[in-house]
Amino acid sequence: MPLVVVLGIITVLLVRSRDVRAWEAVLIGLFGFYLAMTPMGWAVVATVNWLLGGLG
Question: How far is the C-alpha of 5 from the C-alpha of 18, rounded, in Å?
């Protein structure tokens, strides 16, 4: 399952709960970067992949 789908599902659930904390706002922001794939988005993708690669 692509990461953008997972972040999209999490975003929908958070918005429906109407209770968004700081770390949840970061997830929503990451979803926006992945979805838009702006030039800055590629840097975010590379950073997240690097972090997840280090954890796994």
Answer: 20
pLDDT tens, the chain, 56 aa long? 677 777 778 878 888 887 777 787 787 787 787 777 767 777 878 888 898 887 76
How far apart, in whole angstroms, are the C-alpha atoms of residue 34 and residue 26? 12
Asked whether the whole model's pTM tops 0.90, one would answer: no
Binning the chain into helix, strand and coil, the percentages to the nearest 5 are 85, 0, 15
